[in-house]
Amino acid sequence: MTKSPMTFNNKLDLTFERIVDVPPHLVWRAWTEPELMKQWFCPLPWKTIHADVDVRPGGKFHTIMQSPEGHEHAGTGCYLETVKNERIVWTNALLPGFRPALANAPCGEDTEFMFTAMVEMSPHGENGTRYRATVIHADEAGAKKHADMGFEGGWGTALDQLVAMVKRGI
Amino acid sequence: MTKSPMTFNNKLDLTFERIVDVPPHLVWRAWTEPELMKQWFCPLPWKTIHADVDVRPGGKFHTIMQSPEGHEHAGTGCYLETVKNERIVWTNALLPGFRPALANAPCGEDTEFMFTAMVEMSPHGENGTRYRATVIHADEAGAKKHADMGFEGGWGTALDQLVAMVKRGI
């Protein structure tokens, strides 16, 4: 399948790549089945208490994460490109159905920053996956904010949790 | 082809539908070939002086319109869904390659409002097209601003220009 024309800019974007020893089709399942997503999607001690996804362009991406103190953080976005066992692209700049997420806001509010995320998986060796996660932003401040939130550590820890879940058996 | 799951809300969205007497495949060409787009895309006496499009999800949608006084207005967006001779969806909330256009919610009232637009064409009778244009917004203010700019009149006049161009022969 032809992939969409995404381009990257190392001032605006963050990426990390790892080889993991579970196959792409199980990484895909972990990313696309809500009951599996809830088991690994955010680094402990936070929990993913809700996941609701419709894995196709325009479809809903919705999760609710809960802090150890019980605070909830909902994230809503929209899938842009989904290629089974290969690639998932989604953004929080659009709501489900491609509706723009942002209207004008009062000046000075610390609004959520916008990103588009891509997870790519490809076979590595007999039973492994080359896994790459990339987040792209509108500006350097967005990339910095995402980096300061611990992009690589957070996504890396979540990936460790994903791999451990798959090895336990799904 | 399965269409994406778009839903509409009459408080947030604007739409108009017309029957035109040129066939869908020529409407599609008028919407997707830059040299044709430049001939009809904005209502006279404004002109479309530049069009650069890459008609696939993630591809560039870029036009420059020029006022009678010579002022230029550039529009850049990203295609989300393209189904030949049937449907074109794009947004200005994302730049080409699905990059978010804005870092945060814009503050104040003069910022460009975000929209996702859809043009649908289907056969009507032997040689006609049922043509529908829809723009969806994040909030009622965006829809009102678009309506006040003359959405239906502007898109309708552009459609008249498209039909006239096709009848002259393309």
Notable characteristics:
37% strand, homodimer, 170 residues, alpha+beta, two-stranded antiparallel ribbon, Alpha-D-Glucose-1,6-Bisphosphate, Chain A, domain 4, 9 strands
Verbal overview:
Two copies of one chain form a homodimer. With 170 residues, chain A is α+β, with helices and mostly antiparallel strands. Chain A contains four helices and nine strands; from the N terminus they run E-H-H-E-E-E-E-E-E-E-E-H-H. Chain A has one domain: Alpha-D-Glucose-1,6-Bisphosphate, Chain A, domain 4. In chain A, the strands form two sheets. A seven-stranded antiparallel β-sheet of chain A has the order 1-9-8-5-4-3-2. In chain A, strand 3 (60-66) and strand 4 (72-83) form a beta hairpin. In chain A, helix 2 packs across helix 4. Chain A is globular. Chains A and B meet through strand 6 and strand 7 of A and strand 6 and strand 7 of B.
Question: Which helices and strands occur, and which strands form pairs?
Answer:
The structure is a homodimer.
Chain A lengths: L12 E8 L3 H9 L1 H7 L6 E7 L6 E7 L5 E12 L3 E5 L2 E2 L3 E2 L14 E10 L3 E10 L2 H9 L2 H18 L2
Antiparallel strand pairs in A: 1-9, 2-3, 3-4, 4-5, 5-8, 6-7, 8-9
Number of helices of chain A: 4
Largest interface: A-B, 45 and 44 residues
CATH architecture label of chain A: 2-Layer Sandwich
> What's the gyration radius of chain A in Å?
16 Å
CATH C-level label of chain A: Alpha Beta
Main beta sheet of chain A: 7 strands, antiparallel
| Average pLDDT number of chain A | 92
- Report strand order across the widest sheet of chain A: 1-9-8-5-4-3-2
